[in-house]
Amino acid sequence: MKLQFQLNAAFTALLIVIMTVTGFVIYSLILELLIQDEHRQLEQKGELLVNILNKEYRSDPSIQEISAFLREQDLQMFMYDHHNQHVLFSTMPSEVIQGFLSNNHIENSDELWEYGKNKYVSSKILFYPPNSGLELILLTPLKDLQAVQQNFFVRLLIVFLIGAMAAVILSYFLTNKLVTPLTRLKRQLKKIEKRQFDDIERIKASGEIKEVEQSVFEMASELQRYMRSQQTFFQNASHELKTPLMTIQGYAEGIRDGIFDKEDRERGLEIMVSEVNRLKKIINEMILLAKLDSEQTIYQKNEISAKNLINQVMDRTLPLVNEREITLHHDVDDTITFVGDEEKLLRALLNLTINGIRHANTQVYITVKTENKRKVIMIEDDGKGISEDVLPHLFHRFVKGKGGETGLGLAIARAIVEQSGGSITVGDSSLGGAKFIVTFFI
What letter would DSSP give residue 371? Predict the structure, then answer.
């Protein structure tokens, strides 16, 4: 069943339940209100009649005169003498009056009197003076009130049905407005499934559906970017692997065919060993990068001292620093600690530092400090900086600047930093070269 039909069915069922309960309550309540109102009206009519009789027939009136006056009122009533326990006058059948007497209704204060299967609403009014013992009793059959009740309920039911029809029609249009964007969004998801990213269209919606649509659009854009990056990655990877393999193949075939002399064979073997080592390094870094992206279990987080971490970076880069004849400075806040995988984080900082050493002219600075409730590691050099065309893609795989090796070092550094809960950015240093900023929120 489609969502629109489900919503309409649920709304209609809820509406029927509410209307049924409301109708039952109103149906029960209206009869009580009618009985109370009828009792009040009978009491008012009775008091008015008694007042008239007290005034008009004050001086020893005859029962015939009173009876004639009461018959003109066209009411169901009778007059009862409590002293003699006798009915003096009645507009109702005698068997009904006898039924009331046998049920002792006259002596009780019940508002509803019952005779056989019929019920009556009653009101008793004493004549003046109260010790006269005369009482006028007015009655209304309950079936008359029930007829009014049923007539009112039929009208109410008609109003409910018209309102329910209007509500269901309105519900259809509202759910259609709600479901239509979801249907269109489903079509866009089918396009994503078929990788038709260029055909994706934005959906007009509001509220939570708009947020879902925005998330789907962002997901599609990210998926498209990811797939393109994967294509670029495989293209670059194949190129990076193909170049040393071609070199190895060329020298191997030359040595096999005896093309090279002894000196060239020795040099060719050295180049083959060098290219094999290069291949091994590329493959190891590709494997590491794949693990960093897919295997969370390789991260063993613990507390790391910033001072010890930077000291290890200084020790491991010392041979390259001496070879390049540059100065490596460091300024570390000894109180700062990080939470992460020490070996992986050291690898990331080594990649950034070695990158700075390779491109520096005379010096590289490593600074670790706290800034605006953040722990910041800055690595900057005084080299030529990063070209504008490389800068947006610097952390992508196999993106190499001038003098780069595999093009995977900065991608590995970013993966490690992000998995450790930090972020990494690059910009221009006041020294003239590049400045890498690794940030961890406290």
Answer: -
Query: What are the DSSP E strand ranges found in 244-319?
Result: 302-305
Distant-in-sequence, close-in-space partners of 355: CB < 8 Å, separation ≥ 6: 404, 409, 410, 436
Task: Dig out the tokens for 184 from the structure.
Answer: 């269109």
Distance (Å, whole) CA 127 – CA 60: 13
Distance CA 358, CA 340 (A): 27
Locate 395 and state its tokens: 């952390």
The owner of tokens 């009792």 is 39
Q: Is residue 169 part of a domain?
A: no
Query: What phi-psi label fits residue 402: left (phi over 0), alpha (psi between -120 and 50 degrees) or beta?
Result: beta
The per-residue pLDDT for range 355-395, each reduced to its tens digit, is: 888 888 899 999 999 888 888 999 999 888 877 777 666 76
CATH number at residue 54: 3.30.450.20
Q: Are residue 36 and residue 19 in the same domain, yes or no?
A: yes
Angle in degrees, CA 89, 121, 38, rounded to 5: 110
User: By the 8 A CB rule, do 299 and 420 touch?
Assistant: yes
Q: Tell me which residue of 391, 396, 392 sits closest to 411, measured CA to CA.
A: 396
Lowest mean pLDDT among 24-38, 87-101, 137-151, 269-283: 269-283
Query: Are the beta carbons of 403 and 345 closer than 8 angstroms?
Result: no
Nearest CA among 30, 303, 258, 255 for reference residue 145: 30
Coil, helix or strand for 373? coil
80: containing domain: 3-150
Residue showing tokens 């009775």 = 46
- Cβ atoms of residues 157 and 19 within 8 Å: no
pTM over 0.70: no
Within a domain: 325: yes
Question: Above 80 in pLDDT, residue 5?
Answer: no
CATH number of residue 245's parent domain: 1.10.287.130
Give CA–CA dist 114/110, Å, rounded.
10
Question: Phi, psi (5° rounding) for residue 304?
Answer: -120, 135
- For tokens 């806040």, the residue is 333
The lowest-confidence range among 59-63, 170-174, 210-214, 361-365 is 59-63
What residue has token string 């100065």? Answer: 327
For residue 38, count other CB atoms closer than 10 A to its CB: 22
Cβ atoms of residues 177 and 210 within 8 Å: no
Q: Are 328 and 320 in contact (CB under 8 A)?
A: no
CA distance readout (Å), 416 to 231, 296, 347, 351: 22, 11, 8, 11
The torsion of the CA quartet 392, 397, 403, 405, rounded to 10 degrees, works out to 170
Confidence of residue 407 (pLDDT cuts 50, 70, 90): low
